[in-house]
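Recap from last week: sequence in, structure out.
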Amino acid sequence: MEASTFKPWETIQFSWGVGVRHRKGGWELLILSNGQEWDVSKMNVILHDNGIEFI
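Predicted C-alpha cells:
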C-alpha cells in the first residue's frame, strides 16, 4: 500500500458563494450561491468578496 499525501482543505465563504482550496495551495473549487460548481484547479484566479478574477 502506498502512502498518500495529506493536504488540509480550507473553505472560505464569500458573498457570491464558497471557495475551496488547499491550506497552502491554490483554489480548487468554487461553489456559487445558485449551486453551480466550477473546477478552477488548472486556472489562475483571485477571489474577492465582490467577485472572481480570472488572470
